[in-house]
Amino acid sequence: MAGSNLSKILLIGGTGYIGKFIAEASVKAGHPAFVLTRESTLTNPAKSSIINKFKDLSVNLVILRTKMDLYDHQSLVKAIKQVDVVISTVARSHLADQDKIISAIKVAGNVKFVAIAPPRDKVVILGDGNPKAVFNKEEDIAAYTIKAVDDPRYVSATVYCLRHVLA
């Protein structure tokens, strides 16, 4: 599938918990995958298995050479200009910083689809909100996200994927 007309996907937060599943699903679906990562992540022993798996899968690592992460506007714009789709799976501590990603997407001007962490003001719950049990596998969330990428119903859309852990 590689080399086809499938969208190029940039993952921000791709070495994190759910991001690594979405990166893998992207590659398995034939999409060229790019993961934005800090230079320090490449030498972090806790992330070495993820980085090695990405290399084995031919994931393109886009290295941020600054510790400022999402505050490096020019680096974000440069990375975003390489792709068609941006998926943010940043950690909860960076949710408020996603406005930096949106700003860079607007400047880049080429993104057709954005999947981002949950909104802070509105959540839609399917059904009556009182399920007996809910089972979500990370691989299923990742596959669903990637299937939406080239679905014409989602062009120029923002899709929110929620993962809720019940205590």
UniProtKB/TrEMBL annotation:
<comment type="similarity">
    <text>Belongs to the NmrA-type oxidoreductase family. Isoflavone reductase subfamily.</text>
</comment>
<dbReference type="GO" id="GO:0009807">
    <property type="term" value="P:lignan biosynthetic process"/>
</dbReference>
<feature type="domain" description="NmrA-like">
    <location>
        <begin position="7"/>
        <end position="112"/>
    </location>
</feature>
<dbReference type="InterPro" id="IPR036291">
    <property type="entry name" value="NAD(P)-bd_dom_sf"/>
</dbReference>
<dbReference type="InterPro" id="IPR008030">
    <property type="entry name" value="NmrA-like"/>
</dbReference>
<dbReference type="Pfam" id="PF05368">
    <property type="entry name" value="NmrA"/>
</dbReference>
<dbReference type="InterPro" id="IPR050608">
    <property type="entry name" value="NmrA-type/Isoflavone_red_sf"/>
</dbReference>
<protein>
    <recommendedName>
        <fullName>NmrA-like domain-containing protein</fullName>
    </recommendedName>
</protein>
